[in-house]
Amino acid sequence: MTDRTGALIAIGGHEDKEGDRQILRAVAERLGGGRLILATVASEEPGEYFAAYRAAFAGIGVVDVAELYLDEREDTSNPANRSLLAGAAGIFFTGGDQLRIVSLMGDTPLEAEVRALHARGGVIAGTSAGASAQSETMLVRGSGAESHRIGDLHMAPGLGLIPDVIIDQHFAERGRIGRLLGAVAHNPRLLGIGIDEDSAIIVEDRRFRVIGAGAVTVVDAEKVSHSNIAEAKPDRVLSMHNVILHALSAGDQFDLEERLPLARAGEESAEGAQGAASS
Amino acid sequence: MTDRTGALIAIGGHEDKEGDRQILRAVAERLGGGRLILATVASEEPGEYFAAYRAAFAGIGVVDVAELYLDEREDTSNPANRSLLAGAAGIFFTGGDQLRIVSLMGDTPLEAEVRALHARGGVIAGTSAGASAQSETMLVRGSGAESHRIGDLHMAPGLGLIPDVIIDQHFAERGRIGRLLGAVAHNPRLLGIGIDEDSAIIVEDRRFRVIGAGAVTVVDAEKVSHSNIAEAKPDRVLSMHNVILHALSAGDQFDLEERLPLARAGEESAEGAQGAASS
Predict the structure, then answer these.
(1) N or C: which end of chain B has fewer CB atoms below 10 A?
(2) What are the residue boundaries of the structural domains of chain B, listed by start?
(3) Is the dihedral of CA A137, A142, A148, A149 positive or negative?
């Protein structure tokens, strides 16, 4: 273990488990040979999740894995579960229902163990529901493939491992820009981060980097000049002026404090190449 | 007819044809009792379109309608077609393929008649393909429900009735934010306007107003600080930093010259009401 906080890896769901497994490799390379806990807490039928991820990680050399599952909230006091995390190098939250993760683990000794793991340099990863649960506020329910209606959104507090953000997943695939705009309209203090399938952000030191096949969309409502979110007619379509949007893809980095993308490494040479190509 | 340019009405498709018909009424009330031409040019099977719109308009009192259809480009020189438009108070382009509209009508005497109709105060409306065709540049093909890949987009010149914009339709329903971002990345001079189904913009004097049940999304790439659109690897996911996005809904107005939403009428009193509600 290092003496600095570990990485948080939030994945948009459906990450590659049979090919190159780039995203799972990003988790694996941060384990330093230590044990990975597969937390299947988000699902009421965890068996298949565990089997699939055990196989996917075994294929890239991660064989020291154990499952964390919870039936009830009282299971979080179980010393066996706590010692599982105390001896781990990382934890990976599989998909399902993000409310199951936080309603079972929120404000428990087990949640404290997750924070301790992060604080001592361990990697905390999660996909789909497991990604949403990492953010300060989670989107729990809201329609996709339509523009946002004010009443059509349910949010809940997440584990808060990544403060000041709200993460949505399966983002482009399920047409979720509307609900993420609706979410940040409620309180522009939170930055909205929409992660596509087979794509992830790796958060370290209040910066993140994008990896994977799709995009990460950031919506920032800080400069919004008008919104009708407080009008309280539930079927009213959202109106919100002057949102800043960043479309990010593999290699892009983003500063969560400044709320700005970082200049891309090698951008100058890329521009040089463009100039040459178009001349 | 008035002595000022008429309205352009671009509709996102699937507008209500049986209920209140708010959008079709907006067309009807601009006819001043004159004749409406139903231009079914976008479809190779125009019969059903014509029947559906004739019935929908008849139900709101518009009975003086005629069909404009073109099999071939040479039909645009047909004096009967030209006189149809010369005597009309408005034209409504139904859905289908926007390329059919512009490839048949572009740079023809009939297109000149459409412009003349607009110039003398007539209303030019279009839904779906008929909306796209009004803009300076049309999106012709590009995937929905995924983030934009640089090579996955085809554009073509539109009729240019609304300059400096690119209009997309069925916007939220088909998850088209990615392809619209891709389109404006090519040249930020064009403002991207995504119109949901059963929603429309009414353009008058370089301003538009939103009507209908859904939203209109405006994406403005003028302030973009980085984009990889010119990298020319077709499967590369788009990266574009600092896009401005406006989510607009019924009643919102937008200034196409300033590229800014206009302050909402009654906003002050609405804010007063919010203050009261939350106190």
Answers:
(1) C
(2) 8-278
(3) negative
Residues of A annotated as part of the active site = 128, 146, 170
A166-201: pLDDT as tens digits: 999 999 999 999 999 999 999 999 999 999 999 999
- Containing A37, the helix (H) or strand (E) segment is strand A36-39
Tokens of B20: 């209140």
- pLDDT tens profile A121-148: 999 999 999 999 999 999 998 888 888 8
Sequence length of chain A is 279
What is the secondary structure of B16-58 as a DSSP string?
Answer: -SSS--HHHHHHHTTSTT--EEEE-TT-S-HHHHHHHHHHHHH
Run of H or E residues at B260? strand B260-261
Q: Do A147 and B174 touch (CB under 8 A)?
A: no
Give A275's pLDDT tier (boundaries 50, 70, 90).
very low
Which residues of chain B are within 8 Å of residue A236 when distances are taken between CB atoms? 249
Residue holding tokens 């004749």? B35
Contact indicator for A137, A94 with CB cutoff of 8 Å? no
How far does CA B53 lie from the centroid of its chain? Answer: 17
* Closest approach of A147 to chain B, Cα-based (Å): 6
Which residues of chain B make contact with A235, given a CB cutoff of 8 A? none
Gap between the terminal Cα atoms of chain A: 51
Continuous H helices in A109-198: 109-119, 129-132, 177-186
d(CA A271, CA B202): 40
Query: What's the rounded mean pLDDT across residues B220-236?
Result: 89
Which residue is listed with tokens 């200034």? B255
Closest by Cα among A238, A246, A240, A245 to A225: A240
CATH fold label, B8-278: Rossmann fold (3.40.50)
Closest alpha carbon to A205 in A92, A121, A134, A267: A121
Of B196, B232, B249, the CB nearest to A277: B232
Alpha-carbon torsion angle B272, B277, B278, B279, nearest 10: 80
**Dihedral angle sign, alpha carbons of residues B131, B133, B139, B141:** positive
Which ipTM was obtained for this model? Answer: 0.85
Contact A121, A6 (CB under 8 A): yes
